[in-house]
Design brief:
elongated, 8% strand, alpha/beta, 2 domains, 221 residues
Amino acid sequence: MSAGIVMLLIAAAVARPGRRQRAIQWLSLSLLLLLPVALGMNEWYGMGFIVPFALLIMEGAAACFAWAGSFVSNPDRTFTLGLSVACVLAAALWLTALPPGAHGLLLPRGGTHFLLTRPAVTRAAAVSRFFASAPRDAGIMAPTDLSPEVVYLTDKRVVALPFDPGLLDQFIEEYHISYVLASNEFLRRYDPPIADQYTSSLSHPFYRRTPSTVSAGLLAA
């Protein structure tokens, strides 16, 4: 439904004769800024498209209001009152929505609840429950790319794995680490190999293969 509304607004923006050129410019700029993502780069590199795309949607909304205003005698008063009532009703429905049901893989999590009341959608959500009763200063060591999520979910003291497997025991002793997290996600190797040095792809397979050499508890995330 959301995609349909967006397509309708884009079509309305392009179809408006007086603003067609501006709408095409916003559309072209949006597609240009999304090009890195289309070529396989991380979606972060396409975030710039939000600004021209938002302006394109605004052009479409203005075109729709201009078209609808031709059917009423006082469009400013009508739209102001109608949109105000719609916002109040939408807020009431949003805040009084029922709790979300069982989560399906093809459905977004969190239902219609406010963003801050949604369940955490991040990695290591299951293993983080293990640390709920642990002391605040409990030392946790996690792969480099996983440590921000662990900090966010546990609010504990988290240290990233060292780049060199030979430093593992030294770091565990120096930072008083009690638990080391492991995940199959970090067993892959990179090309070029230089990336292995800053993604925990050297240390992680080491302590997965030889857990008896690690002087801390080993948990699977």
